Amino acid sequence: MTQYSKRMVITHWLTLVLLLAAWYLGDTLSDATDESRATLAGYIIHGLVGGAVLLLTVVRLFFRSKDGTPPAVGRTMMDKVAKGVHHALYLALFLLPLSGIMTVITSSVAKALLAGDANMLPKAHGYHGVFAHEVHETLVTVLIVLVSVHLLGALKHQFVMKDGLLERMMLRRK
Ligand code: HEM
Ligand code: HEM
Question: Do 126 and 133 contact (CB within 8 A), yes or no?
């Protein structure tokens, strides 16, 4: 096999789309909370999109275990770093949504959702002492750094090394 299976390719790019949406929704939600105008729907939509990332990651790892992966492109130090980044990305795709779920459970968000009362939602600085929220925020930064390194690697392969690595993650079959 020289390319990732079609379903691995689809889940890879779908994850990117969902992550961008969850990131945008989370940022908007955080601004709204600071300005005391957050809505229950805002939390539900962000949670659903973020939760979809978690489910998709479980499905993706199942596909990975069934379909396998193409052999490593090389054995240099950079190839090992790239592999390490892939593993760290998978870990972040689990921990980020889980920390989001924990934020909801351990803050007043869960109570507000259960009561259906938006007035009970956290206001500005309303997450004081909610450890999961700090973890969630930190993991967002960690994910951005990891994806940036990953993207730079892909661009290097495409435009500097010109070895066609990107085709391994494309639907078009050779
Ligand atoms: C991979 C998926 C996710 C991404 C990329 C993501 C991203 C974000 C971002 C960027 C923020 C704003 C952080 C800030 O204050 O700077 C945020 C906040 C938050 N997220 Fe997520 N999130 C994800 C999954 C989830 C899930 C599954 C839940 C819960 C079910 C969740 C619950 C929350 C909550 C409660 C906040 C705080 C909003 C506020 O400030 O009031 N997140 N998220
Ligand atoms: C930003 C645009 C992106 C580009 C151009 C890109 C490109 C690629 C390419 C070319 C590969 C195959 C590498 C190889 O054959 O060794 C790959 C694999 C991978 N990508 Fe991305 N990617 C992007 C975004 C993301 C995002 C957002 C995530 C997750 C947060 C991600 C996670 C992964 C993982 C975990 C693998 C390894 C797959 C495996 O072996 O199981 N990528 N990516």
Answer: no
Query: Domains of the chain: which residue ranges?
Result: 6-169
User: Tens digits of per-residue pLDDT, 148-163?
Assistant: 999 999 999 999 999 9
Instruction: Please report which ligand is nearest the Cα atom of 7.
Output: 2
DSSP at 170? S
Does this model's pTM top 0.85? My answer is yes
d(CA 16, CA 22): 10
Is 135 touching ligand 1 by the criterion CB < 6 Å?
no
| pLDDT digits 0-9 by tens, 80-98 | 999 999 999 999 999 999 9
What is the Cα Rg of the chain in Å?
19
Q: Are 164 and 66 in contact (CB under 8 A)?
A: no
